[in-house]
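Sanity check record (used in CI):
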Amino acid sequence: MDASLNADAAELAKFSELAHRWWDPESEFRPLHQINPLRLGWIESLTGPLQGRTVLDVGCGGGILAEAMARQGAQVLGIDLADKALKVAQLHALEQGVQGLEYRLVSVEALAAEQAARYDVVTCMEMLEHVPDPASVVRACAALVKPGGWVFFSTLNRNPKSFLFAIVGAEYVLRLLPRGTHEYGKFIRPSELASACRQAGLALHATRGLAYNPLTRRYWLSDDTSVNYLFATRKEAA
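Expected output for Ubiquinone biosynthesis O-methyltransferase:
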């Protein structure tokens, strides 16, 4: 791997090994399938209908969110550096006959140099905690969105509660995720992400937390950002 890439080879290998299970709703990716309607609904509640919009999904993995946005009528590009996951995404879209959806093996920084101010909406979900330099990703996302456009992030807060819930609870007790999915030291406090967004020219517009009930196995959006949280930001209009 190019040493200049803002990527962790071990992280890419980890998700590549599981690539064939991306679209199994009972697999390790079950949480992503369950929260996807929540994410999509929140995005459209802020942007309005995605129909006809140009959308970029950064760190798209197997394409769960990218495909859902394309089904809403958006023109979507999903990018990732995990080749096996992209192949799974491409195959699933082909099998399902999804229109308006493309995938590319490219870093967000490289794409920003190529397609500045190209997209109406940029999403970067569950990715920032897996890269060496999250602020670099934030800057690239800001460069890729059009003036007045939206950039959405989701990641994990860094505090004792998130360690207990997202690692001990989710990976070891409830086994919602494979052990080793997350590294606590890479979690990002909302204040840190907000600072990176401001420095990149993105104004924070809304935040939401993601809650889970292990008894009902149900997720919902909440005001509690202490563990999982989402940011909606906008780039200043020209």
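The mean pLDDT is 92. If this sentence no longer matches the regenerated tokens, the check is flagged for review.
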